[in-house]
Amino acid sequence: MPRGVTDLVVHPAERPLQGSVPVPSDKSIGHRAVLFSSLCNGRSRIRGFSRGEDNVSTMRALQRMGATVTDVSKTEILVDGVGLFGLKAPDGPLDCGNSGTTMRLFVGLLAAQTFESVLVGDASLTRRPMMRVAKPIRDRGGRVEGAPHPTKAAEITAPLRVGPVPEGRELGPLEAVSEVASAQVKSAVLLSGLYAHGPTIFREPTVSRDHTERMMLALGVPLRVVGPIVQLDPAGWSGEMPPLDVEIPGDVSAAAFLVTAGALVAGSRVTVRGVGVNPTRTGFLEIARDMGVALVVENRGDMGGEPVADLHAAPGPLRAGRVGGELVPRAVDEIPIVCALAARSPGVTVVRDAAELRVKESDRIATMCGVLRAFGVECEELPDGMCIQGKPEGKLSAAEVESRGDHRIAMTAAVMGLVADAPTMIRDCDCIATSFPKFVGTLRALGARVDVA
Ligand code: S3P
Predict the structure, then answer these.
(1) Residues of the chain under the 50 pLDDT cut
(2) Secondary structure (DSSP) of 303-326
(3) What amino acid positions are annotated as catalytic residues?
(4) For the domain 27-235, what is the CATH code?
(5) Is the CB of 182 under 6 A from ligand 1?
(6) 59: which DSSP letter?
(7) Which residue ranges does the chain devote to CATH 3.65.10.10?
(8) From the alpha carbon of 360, which atom of ligand 1 is closest?
(9) Does the CB atom of residue 33 touch ligand 1 within 6 A?
(10) Sheet of 223-226: strands edge to edge?
(11) Domain 8-24+249-452: what homologous superfamily?
(12) pTM for the complete prediction?
């Protein structure tokens, strides 16, 4: 990965972090809100839409297929949908940037169209496995072709060629059993199911984030959910979806960095307002509490069918954690920042059942182990996780680390830098803009000293 232009220098915190801050709106819900709005009949209103690069990739691609987006303010957009069957062929490849969610959801949506689409992405996305979405879509008669994966046999990656459904044909019924709990695969399958002739049944090992299901149900899509099994039967359904009017809650995955910063810097009191606390996403909050973080969740409410709350975090007596099983899909993006907590917790924290981390924006098991060691923390890499020997006494050793173009690694290293013994240099931090463009400003607002080099 070429070096980015932005490096960060994080100074050790000299005083407690204090304050009440927002986070960008939930990236996962943002993708789905703009995607479904584009398929609705009429004008949808989305409040709190994040301008993080990943959400913008999804929005731009939909605009190129005919959806009209009007900016009302920095955070509010209106989307004139084209209806389920109204998308038109884009005039060239659709750039999904760094966003795996954009690419995988589009595979399901675009395999059902009467035109061919080409999906491309950045260097990281061009290494991510796409067979997990290609296989079920092919099984129902859809066309998905990709480039051979550079290192994995029988695997494909971007660029992808998707669709069309041949004239006079339709996608067929599908019963898909996914080996991994994956909301991206589930959503791709369900999106293709909107256009299929016959029912779709999707089963996963444990429940992954359910934002797609919630939004489909709100739009009147004939869906049934029983634990980790989702069934969609479009027989007798009009295919008409009324416009959405939603406000998107704050991203718990972004909040996790601030909660951890508040838990690690002595004397801190950090509040993150308006955070989505959908139970399929709150694994991190459970892990943090279990590891001793003084975490209070209050002001619970509802935003567009998604639960929301304020989070208050302060240091508590930390202890090592155990992360595995059904907790992993509910905290899948937060494992790097759990490692930062583990780095300061007495004892050995063990993360298992997390092999999926190897195929995220970077190999997060290998990358995180490298970051931990750079900060003087001992850890052992396992095929599906890691063991981290906490270093609660003294400070971490100031480090110079590479983000490997992975936003969650860059932000985790920044939080660790707050409790290091000298300034920490984090290279290649442009990637933070994919999910949390105001990350540095937010840390500064809490009282941290961060320089942009
Ligand atoms: C996402 C699902 C998860 C997650 C990703 C966003 C989504 O990926 O890691 O950041 O919005 O559906 P998987 O489906 O691969 O677990």
Answers:
(1) 1-3
(2) ETTEEEEEEEEE-------EE-GG
(3) 333
(4) 3.65.10.10
(5) yes
(6) H
(7) 8-24+249-452, 27-235
(8) 9
(9) no
(10) 174-177, 200-203, 229-232, 223-226
(11) Enolpyruvate transferase domain (3.65.10.10)
(12) 0.97
